[in-house]
Amino acid sequence: MMHYWTTRRRDVLTGYLFIAPQLGGVVLFVLIPVGLAIWYSLNKWNVFTGKQTFVGGDHYAALASDPQLPSVLLATVVFSGGVVVLNITLGLLIAVLLNRRFRGATFFRTVFFSPVVVSVVAWTLVWGFLLQDNGGINGLLRAIGADGTNWLQHGDTAMLSVIVSQVVRSVGVNMVLFLAALQGVPSELYEAARIDGARSRAVFARITLPLIAPTVLLTAIITVVGALQSFAQIAVLTGGGPELSTTVLVYYVFQQAFEFNDIGYGSTVALMLLSFVMVLTLLQWQLRKRWVFHEQ
């Protein structure tokens, strides 16, 4: 028995024991739910009687002919695109400004990051009150002589409101990541650039941005996945309305599965959402070779 447990085998066993909790979590919370979603998408499930009837690819055929799906996909693209662009751009801008040494920098870092630790539902409820016709935002507009609107009752303003609410709450995460990356850039490179007479814009484009490109890739992946999974903001603020203007894919999954009690079709839409997340993540990972300078 002692001859069996060689040093190599003990090291291998130790490694497996270390990854066992993570591996168990992946199996329990990822692989099993995905497997169940695939099974449900192939069956018609009557939630009242508990009876399941195998229907094969009927749900996938219904997905291809769903008249509401184009509007849902458009809302998903608009919402995700707005959140990703604003979140990354503002996060980087705030990080660059707060990376400088000035009095109160720590205070402003805390202010921008504090919404991240607030409950999503509580944050969204507050924004719901602010965006009402007689809410705080319209009150401020009236104070300066401008007319407001009921932001959540019109398609364009409802989408804009949801995007802004999401960005303001989550931009602090990207800010912290960018701050950590900026503080890791060697100061000697900036000093050499200043001696050579390089302008601030050239320094940022030729030194700062290439060196923080891995962090930009990380924030892009995190922000895209987070935007596609955003549910509470839409559920609390607009309920997917007015009409389908703010019904994104993740909320459409909820509607089909739990409001219309069509678990099979809801699972089919969920699998489509999962495929979108996987494709976008893999695409960004492959594109890293073009814009992350040290990737081969």
From TrEMBL:
Taxonomic superkingdom: Bacteria
Keywords linked to the UniProt accession: Cell membrane, Membrane, Sugar transport, Transmembrane, Transmembrane helix, Transport
A single BP term in Gene Ontology: transmembrane transport
Protein name as catalogued: Multiple sugar transport system permease protein
One GO term describing the cellular component: plasma membrane
Family of the protein in this entry: Belongs to the binding-protein-dependent transport system permease family.
Location in the cell: Cell membrane
The ABC transmembrane type-1 domain, residue ranges: 73-284
PROSITE patterns to which the protein is assigned, alphabetical: ABC_TM1 (PS50928)
Membrane spanning residue stretches: 12-40, 72-98, 110-130, 158-182, 203-228, 263-283
Primary localization class, coarse: membrane
Pfam family for this entry, one: BPD_transp_1
